[in-house]
Please model this.
Amino acid sequence: MESALTFPRAPKGFTCLFTSPYQQGWDIYEDETGTLWSLSKDNPDRDSMYGKHLHLLDELSFPSFSLLPTEDGGRRFEGAVVLLPPDYFLRVEHYKKMRALNKRFPVTISKTDYTVTTRH
Model:
């Protein structure tokens, strides 16, 4: 399971949900009110509010999203369904790693995405 390098300086009560696989980047934390915060791995002056959960769910479907879930992140977003990212088939190994790190992130295809309506 991924662990956050920013954990030692995170404010009390913050829970790390996602962490960057790179030396530079951000770890995403949640505070007691459900607000998400991004803590920079290499420059604390770049820490900022990240948004709410809906914002993160939108980000999960972007090709540039490379953060990996922590154990707490997996529990917090268990059951969340997002569209497959447009680059899914180009970055299968990355998404495979995400799922391997946390079994709560399965690939789910909604049947409604493939429903075809015909007119008679």
